[in-house]
């Protein structure tokens, strides 16, 4: 809940954070895009450069191979000794061996013209003989192994048509790959043989980093020199160019790390800026939190508590900026003044309530006094001294209660005793035309505190409006704990008269707090007003007509046993 308040879209914390992110995130995205774009441009430029370089080297290799291919075609066309190898050597052995010597010498001589080649060879499929030059760097074992490999390669291709020898082709012998080209005339094959790594020697001069590679590869991407990187192939820039002379291609692999290390120094600054922004964001937020957000949050927290009615709250002193110190001092001063003003207003309200309660009670006193004196006067005419004494005693007790208990909450027991005095006087006045009973099932309720004259007011209202000379009236008062809430006292006053008029009930239901006009029902209005002043909204006064006839008054007030102030009512109840 606390974070919900802090991250509200109306809070300063939220706006500062969003504002900072709206500034930083586009900058970050711009730097990232710029960096990505620069890397893409550099990669494309390096790719184009190496693509052109690969094409240049492949063109150089193709020209060399093309020269060798022209030599092979020329030899096939003009070398007469090849005719002798096309015949079985037994037909003319002298000429056959002479032709072999001539061809060997030719191959030894011509190999020096084509430095890219390792071997030139002639093979007679009829006589199963292979003639090659002898490279000075190879041992006899190496020469034997290569010659056996050549012979095996040529025997594999004896059944191939002449058109299958148009291009140079790769051939694997042991762990090494060789590039070979064959020209066929009859049953004689003349060809060239070169190790693939020898063709790649010029590319070794290129600086492609410690992990960069230039490879001749077959059509199946099998490397013919070196080792192809098996892992993280995506970390390399791959540029390939297909040979026009053979069934192989030139592949250049350059690590992106080598490419990007040549980026301008500004790109590194971009990385620093991006990293710095990510580091600065929490630092900047902590700075804002310490110097702006926390002081504001402390003030807002205290303001919420003050709004809830706790005027004792103050903003605690913290090391903050001078502006916040001034705000804290002004706010604390304002809360103190509001508290003092509220106390003054509250005290004035209490004094006003006390005066109003006193006035309301004094309004009740004249209602009964004149009738009581008139009854005594009538009893004196009949010289009924005992009744006069009883009547005078009831009246004295009644008036003593009235004048000794102004503005004090009284016990239910005292209120009932006072009400009995009043009812006894009325019973003496109306004789058999009026009876009453007062009941309470719980003796402990007799010590509960209620406003004075609360029961007597409605009893008097019954006497005033319900008693007629036509039929007797019975009055009943019940004091009990509320069935719904045990912390409330319930007082029910019911008579057997004609009840309230519909007009009166409608008026009390529609305007319960309206100012009373005129003298009619002033006692009921005063009782309701007193309950509102003392108990606020906690008390309830309900007027109705009983289903069996007669008026029914129900009073529901908080159950209270102590008086908490000298003024005579519970201040805590009023304050709540």
UniProtKB/TrEMBL annotation:
GO terms for molecular function: phosphorelay sensor kinase activity. Residues 290-343 form the HAMP domain. It is a multi-pass membrane protein. Signal peptide: none annotated. Its main location: membrane. Keywords: Cell membrane, Kinase, Membrane, Phosphoprotein, Transferase, Transmembrane, Transmembrane helix. It is found in: Cell membrane. InterPro entries: Bact_2-comp_sensor_kinase (IPR050640), HAMP_dom (IPR003660), HATPase_C_sf (IPR036890), HATPase_dom (IPR003594), Sig_transdc_His_kin_internal (IPR010559). It comes from the Bacteria. PANTHER family: SENSOR HISTIDINE KINASE YPDA (PTHR34220:SF7). This is HAMP domain-containing protein.
């Amino acid at each position: 809940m606390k974070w919900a308040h802090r991250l509200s879209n109306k809070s300063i914390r939220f706006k500062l954070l969003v504002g900072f992110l709206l500034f930083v995130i586009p900058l970050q995205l711009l730097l990232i895009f710029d960096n990505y774009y620069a890397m893409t441009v550099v990669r494309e430029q390096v790719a184009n450069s190496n693509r052109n370089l690969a094409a240049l080297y492949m063109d150089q290799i193709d020209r060399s191979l093309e020269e060798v291919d022209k030599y092979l075609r020329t030899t096939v066309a003009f070398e007469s000794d090849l005719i002798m190898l096309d015949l079985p050597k037994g037909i003319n052995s002298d000429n056959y061996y002479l032709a072999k010597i001539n061809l060997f010498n030719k191959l030894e001589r011509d190999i020096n013209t084509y430095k890219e080649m390792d071997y030139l060879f002639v093979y007679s499929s009829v006589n199963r003989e292979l003639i090659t030059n002898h490279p000075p760097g190879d041992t006899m074992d190496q020469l034997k192994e290569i010659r056996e490999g050549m012979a095996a390669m040529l025997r594999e291709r004896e059944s191939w048509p002449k058109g299958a020898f148009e291009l140079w082709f790769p051939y694997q012998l042991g762990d090494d790959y060789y590039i070979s080209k064959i020209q066929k005339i009859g049953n004689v094959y003349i060809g060239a043989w070169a190790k693939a790594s020898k063709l790649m020697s010029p590319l070794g001069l290129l600086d492609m980093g410690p992990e960069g590679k230039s490879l001749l590869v077959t059509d199946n991407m099998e490397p013919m020199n070196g080792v192809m990187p098996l892992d993280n192939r995506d970390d390399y820039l791959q540029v390939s160019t297909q040979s026009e002379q053979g069934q192989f291609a030139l592949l250049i692999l350059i690590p992106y790390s080598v490419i990007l290390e040549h980026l301008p120094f500004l790109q590194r600054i971009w990385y620093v800026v991006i990293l710095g922004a990510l580091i600065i964001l929490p630092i900047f937020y902590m700075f804002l939190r310490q110097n702006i957000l926390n002081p504001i949050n402390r003030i807002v927290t205290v303001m919420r508590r003050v709004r809830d009615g706790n005027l004792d709250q103050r903003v605690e002193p913290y090391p903050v900026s001078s502006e916040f110190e001034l705000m804290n001092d002004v706010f604390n001063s304002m809360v103190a003044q509001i508290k003092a003003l509220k106390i003054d207003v509250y005290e004035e309200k209490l004094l006003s309530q006390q005066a109003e309660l006193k006035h309301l009670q004094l309004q009740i006193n004249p209602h009964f006094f004149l009738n009581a004196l008139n009854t005594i006067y009538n009893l004196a005419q009949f010289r009924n001294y005992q009744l006069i004494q009883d009547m005078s005693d009831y009246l004295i007790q009644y008036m003593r209660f009235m004048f000794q208990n102004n503005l004090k909450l009284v016990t239910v027991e005292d209120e009932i005793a006072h009400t009995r005095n009043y009812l006894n006087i009325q019973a003496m006045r109306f004789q058999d035309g009026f009876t009453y009973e007062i009941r309470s099932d719980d003796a402990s309720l007799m010590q509960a505190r209620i406003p004075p004259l609360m029961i007597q007011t409605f009893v008097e209202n019954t006497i005033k409006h319900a008693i007629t000379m036509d039929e007797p009236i019975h009055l009943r008062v019940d004091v009990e704990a509320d069935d719904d809430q045990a912390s409330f006292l319930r007082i029910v006053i019911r008579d057997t008269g004609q009840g309230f008029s519909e007009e009166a009930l409608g008026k009390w239901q529609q305007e319960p707090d309206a100012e009373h006009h005129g003298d009619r029902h002033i006692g009921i209005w005063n009782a309701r007003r007193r309950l509102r002043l003392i108990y606020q909204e906690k008390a309830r006064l309900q007027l109705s007509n009983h289903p069996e006839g007669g008026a029914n008054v129900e009073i529901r007030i908080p159950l209270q046993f102590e008086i908490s102030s000298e003024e005579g009512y519970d201040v805590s109840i009023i304050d709540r």
